[in-house]
Design a protein that fits this description.
With 170 residues, this protein is an alpha/beta fold. Helices cover 18% and strands 25% of the residues. Strands 2-1-4-6 form a four-stranded mixed beta sheet, with no helix packed on it. A four-stranded mixed beta sheet has the order 3-8-7-5, with no helix packed on it. A hairpin with a 4-residue loop joins strand 1 and strand 2. The protein is globular.
């Protein structure tokens, strides 16, 4: 009679405990939306997250200040969808998004873009420069319309392509 080897035992022998058929449970990550009215600063805490595909990020508004989360038109991986939340108006309101596609998602709060209220979610492996979405003219026009809802032309807020945003933030 041959001894049976369990999947667990085989895993330990062959891979030192890590097996391809082991499934990790999706996790929920929380980002606080912070509004410090005394210093007039707005931020996402943490500003950057590294998660796994299938994980969910929940943003929670910490104050009675209007915020949203929206990816830049070129701030998410090719083949993936960007995201845009509803506006969170009061403390305790929350919005969640489940990330399925691997790569880097760059987002911001539309009303507070001038305050550099930005964040990043890296799902699995980070995107390389050539891995980001190329927005259509229609996507850019829609984004410009959204900016125009909050900002007048003389405020200098406009769509800036990803590489321009990166070089101006350094």
């Amino acid at each position: 009679m041959k001894p049976k080897i369990s999947k667990f035992s085989l895993c330990l022998l062959l891979f030192g405990g890590g097996c391809a058929w082991e499934q990790k449970e999706p996790r929920e990550h929380v980002v606080s939306i912070v509004s410090d009215l005394n210093s007039m600063s707005m931020s996402f805490e943490p500003r950057s997250l590294h998660i796994e595909p299938g994980d969910t990020v929940t943003w929670i508004n910490a104050a009675d200040v209007t915020h949203n989360m929206i990816t830049y038109p070129d701030g998410f991986p090719k083949g993936a969808d960007g995201f845009e939340s509803d506006y969170l108006l009061v403390a305790g309101e929350r919005w969640s998004y489940r990330f399925q596609d691997e790569g880097t998602y760059e987002y911001h709060c539309l009303p507070h873009i001038l305050m550099k209220m930005e964040g990043t979610v890296v799902v699995g492996k980070a995107s390389g420069e050539s891995d980001f979405h190329d927005p259509s003219n229609g996507e850019i026009a829609r984004y410009r319309e959204q900016l125009a809802e909050y900002f007048d032309e003389d405020e200098g807020v406009s769509y800036r392509p990803r590489l321009e945003r990166l070089t101006q933030s350094e």
